[in-house]
């Protein structure tokens, strides 16, 4: 009942003229309003990230990737100055993620829940909200796209996040004028094709934390996995016997190790690169007799996978980058003779 | 008609009628008029988006609402012999690891794979139908029966399965590494 009445309040408030509701909101969120001078794209993004972790709200959205639609619901609130967020998949086997402060708990089908420290809830929305895109050394620029656009029945402003080169995806972000929360995110290729989309279908803002989140906040979470427990997947870093001779600007080596790949049981050389927003994984397998992919390319919308075999060595590149980038990286992998 | 005049005055913010607002929430015809008045108002104030914005949110909400809560019972979801023979056992071994993710199942059908060196542009026709190809039909299930046609025909069935399994193992590992390295 509580939810409904507040929802109605938001509906009613949208009935009033912009000048009237902007006053209301400025009291609540202490953020920019439609009446104030136009903010820069960077300021709009900053306000969005602040709103995302400081407001009390329920945001339902769909993820669209190659025609497949996945509905999700994200509830957020601030309890004792700590941001608490809960993401739930709405169809099929439930997947749930609960983030409390710096700890995220994962609940996925057919396995016990676990927690990890200092990691975000998985998904493009949360990656974007946790990433500082507009630093000087960043590979992206934010541009304000003029005008107002209507999304989820609300007026929004559009910010375009443009990569400095064609080797990564760009983004269009629709930001709600009233709450500053993100309403729609398009992940786009250089050519303008949308490869992945987050689209809000309903947004309720609450003056206080919802009872549901209060309840979740008191739940005892699964223990944080120790380094010991993640060792199979993340052994101590080693200097790789391989290196890339080409990487798009701004991608830095995060880790290199040898680890066992779940599901195929092979231990394979691994390198991970990141530009702060997206990641690229490079696998080099010298034992192709134990199994390998034939040369080829796979695309799942936002993820590209490129495999190649040269001189009985299998190279696989996986990342949230355009397929041409994955191919160029795979072609650039050589033995690291500096060792 | 009188109701509509009262509605119009609400839209124009001239007079707030609490009783009518109450009714607005209940009466579909009235709320549709209300929407139209707002649209007219938006046009007059020049607040319409640059491109015509079809009411997609409504279509999506409707599609989701129409979908039965559980469209497939567990058995039929796993009905495909492909799933039973190959994917399921693999999932079970995956469970032995401290961390695994159900994300893989989504990726299994999502990856289009070709073993040829064809030009990259030719390999991604499916992207052209983005972003709203599937709204009318209930495609929002994360688990779909795997479509083996996506793999090139020169593979035997066993090889296809092995290739798909391996692709997904790499994609899964990539996602898990993202999770723990952050």
What does this structure look like?
The complex is a heterodimer of chains A (339) and B (182). Chain A has helices spanning 2-13, 18-29, 41-54, 124-130, 211-217, 323-332, and strands at 56-65, 68-79, 82-89, 96-100, 103-107, 114-117, 140-151, 154-163, 170-176, 182-188, 194-206, 242-244, 252-260, 267-274, 279-285, 296-299, 304-310, 313-319, 333-335. The radius of gyration of chain A is 22 Å and the shape is globular. The longest helix of chain A is centred in the N-terminal third of the chain and has 14 residues, at 41-54. Chain A has 339 residues and is α+β, with helices and mostly antiparallel strands. Chain A folds into two domains: 2-217, Lipoprotein localisation LolA/LolB/LppX (outer membrane lipoprotein receptor (LolB), chain A); 242-335, Phosphorylase Kinase, domain 1. In chain A, the strands form three sheets. In chain A, strands 6-5-4-3-2-1-11-10-9-8-7 form an eleven-stranded antiparallel β-sheet. The termini of chain A are far apart. By secondary structure, chain B is mostly helical. Chain B has two domains: 2-53, Anti sigma-E protein RseA, N-terminal domain (Arc Repressor Mutant, subunit A), CATH 1.10.10; 74-181, no CATH class. Chain B is built from eight helices and one strand; from the N terminus they run H-H-H-H-H-H-H-E-H. Chain B has helices at 2-11, 18-26, 28-45, 56-66, 74-77, 81-94, 103-110, 157-181, and one strand at 112-114. The chains are: A alpha+beta (339), B mainly alpha (182). The interface between A and B is large, with 87 and 81 residues.
Main features:
heterodimer, A: 339 residues, alpha+beta, outer membrane lipoprotein receptor (LolB), chain A, Phosphorylase Kinase, domain 1, 2 domains, six-stranded antiparallel β-sheet, globular, disordered N terminus, B: 182 residues, mainly alpha
């Amino acid at each position: 009942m509580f939810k409904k009445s507040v929802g109605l309040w938001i509906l009613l408030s949208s009935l009033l003229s912009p000048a009237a509701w902007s006053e209301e909101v400025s009291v609540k969120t202490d953020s920019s309003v439609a009446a104030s001078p136009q903010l820069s794209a960077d300021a709009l993004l900053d306000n969005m990230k602040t709103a995302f972790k400081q407001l009390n709200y329920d945001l339902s959205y769909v993820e669209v990737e190659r025609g497949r639609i996945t509905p999700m619901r994200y509830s957020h609130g601030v309890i004792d100055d700590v941001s608490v967020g809960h993401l739930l998949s709405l169809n099929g086997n439930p997947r749930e993620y609960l983030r409390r402060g710096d700890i995220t708990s994962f609940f996925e089908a057919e396995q016990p829940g676990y927690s990890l420290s200092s990691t975000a809830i998985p998904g493009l929305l949360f990656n974007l909200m946790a990433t500082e895109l507009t630093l000087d050394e960043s590979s992206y620029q934010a541009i304000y796209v003029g005008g107002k656009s209507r999304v989820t029945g609300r007026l929004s402003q559009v910010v375009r996040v443009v990569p400095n080169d064609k080797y990564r995806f760009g983004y269009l972000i629709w930001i709600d004028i009233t709450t500053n929360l993100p309403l729609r995110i398009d992940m786009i290729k250089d050519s303008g094709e949308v490869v992945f989309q987050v689209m809000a279908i309903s947004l309720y803002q609450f003056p206080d934390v919802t009872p549901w989140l209060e309840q979740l906040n008191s739940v005892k979470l699964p223990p944080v996995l120790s380094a010991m427990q993640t060792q199979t997947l993340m052994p101590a870093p080693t200097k790789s016997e391989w290196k890339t001779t080409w990487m798009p600007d701004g991608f830095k080596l995060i880790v290199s190790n040898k680890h066992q790949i779940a599901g195929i049981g092979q231990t394979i050389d691994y390198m991970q690169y990141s530009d702060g927003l997206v990641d690229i994984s490079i696998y080099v397998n010298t034992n192709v007799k134990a199994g390998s992919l034939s040369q080829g390319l796979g695309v799942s919308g936002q993820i590209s996978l490129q495999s190649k075999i040269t001189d009985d060595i299998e190279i696989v590149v996986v990342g949230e980058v355009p397929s041409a980038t994955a191919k160029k990286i795979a072609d650039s992998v050589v033995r690291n003779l500096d060792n | 008609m009188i109701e509509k005049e009262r509605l119009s005055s609400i839209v124009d913010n001239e007079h707030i009628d609490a009783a009518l607002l109450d009714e607005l929430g209940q009466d579909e015809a009235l709320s549709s008029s209300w929407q139209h008045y707002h649209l007219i108002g938006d046009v007059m104030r020049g607040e319409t988006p640059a491109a015509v914005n079809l009411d997609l949110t409504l279509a999506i909400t409707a599609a989701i609402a129409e979908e039965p809560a559980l469209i497939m019972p567990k058995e039929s979801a796993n009905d495909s012999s492909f799933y039973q023979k190959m994917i399921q056992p693999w999932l079970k071994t995956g469970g032995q690891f401290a961390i695994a993710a159900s994300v893989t199942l989504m990726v299994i059908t999502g990856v289009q794979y070709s073993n040829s060196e064809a030009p990259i542009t030719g390999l991604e026709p499916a992207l052209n139908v983005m972003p709203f190809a599937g709204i009318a039909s209930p495609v929002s299930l994360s688990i779909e029966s795997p479509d083996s046609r996506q793999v090139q025909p020169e593979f035997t069935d066993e090889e296809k399965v092995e290739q798909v399994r391996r692709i997904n193992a790499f994609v899964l590992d990539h996602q898990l590494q993202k999770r723990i390295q952050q």
